[in-house]
Amino acid sequence: MDFIELGGAALRYELSGKGDRTLVLVHEMGGSLESFDDVAPRFAESRRVLRYDTRGAGLSQKARGELGLDTMADDIAGLLDHTGIAGKVALAGIAVGGAIALHFAARYPERVSAVAVGSPATGIAPERRAAALERVAKIEAAGMAFAVEDAMQNGYAPELRGDLKRFARYRARWLGNDPASYATVWRMLAGADMQGELATLRCPVLVIGGSLDRVRPPPLAEAVAGAIPGARYVELRTGHYMAVQTPDLIFECIDAFLKEIGA
User: Which H or E run contains 56?
Assistant: First the structure.
């Protein structure tokens, strides 16, 4: 693990593996680079793997004020420059991490070979926005415990809690988020409108829907795939925090995709 000060914020990151190809892993909102603990080492057997705590999450500097997807994408570009990774990279992101990965591909198309995303959170439906922002304001005021039961019930389905230690560890880590920073990232999502830029993507894209994801059900993931020219869509028995819940399934799906297209 290492830290870098980039664009006015300190970011924690890890670069592992070796080889000519690089995969950037972008975690979900409320997560951290540890969300890929059971996935990253397997990818690192055949490629370099860059994972990091996004701005406002994990041990990276906490976010205040306004935050946009441009800044999140620029953080990835800065990390690639800092670590000396040139040429095209593949990206894999979960939920909001998926939105960041897709936005990076739109903002820096010359640096992207492929993108794989799980339950990508590319925005909030207008009719849900007011209620979502009201809930976020309550989280900011009352703390993460206010929302943990709903977040786990909808995002970490009981059907996926066979490994109780894994679930308990993720729940505790989720509770450790800074409420104000979490709210800042949430408001970024509420203000995002990616529909137009999705149609501009030209790299290979895989979209994964989780049949047990009650935060972003499969029809929402499939709609994102439908907006991207040539994107593939697959539905797996997993949930919203899929890299944590079903790491073997997610690794195998994304690895097969990247190998097939040579990314």
Answer: none
Structural domains present in the chain: 2-261 (3.40.50.1820)
Residue 125 has pLDDT above 90, yes or no: no
End-to-end CA distance of the chain: 25
Cα–Cα distance, 54 to 61 (Å, whole number):
9
Per residue, the 3-state secondary structure of 104-144, as one string, reads HHHHCHHHEEEEEEECCCCCCCHHHHHHHHHHHHHHHHHCH
Select from 135, 166, 162, 134 the least CA-distant residue to 151. Answer: 135
Comparing C-alpha atoms, which of 39, 30, 34 is closest to residue 14? 34
- Nearest residue to 233 via CA among 219, 243, 215: 219
pLDDT in tens, 210-250: 999 999 999 999 999 999 999 999 999 999 999 999 999 99
Reported as a single tens digit per residue, the pLDDT across 32-61 is 999 999 999 999 999 999 999 999 999 999
This prediction's pTM: 0.97
Are 73 and 8 within 8 A, CB to CB? Answer: no
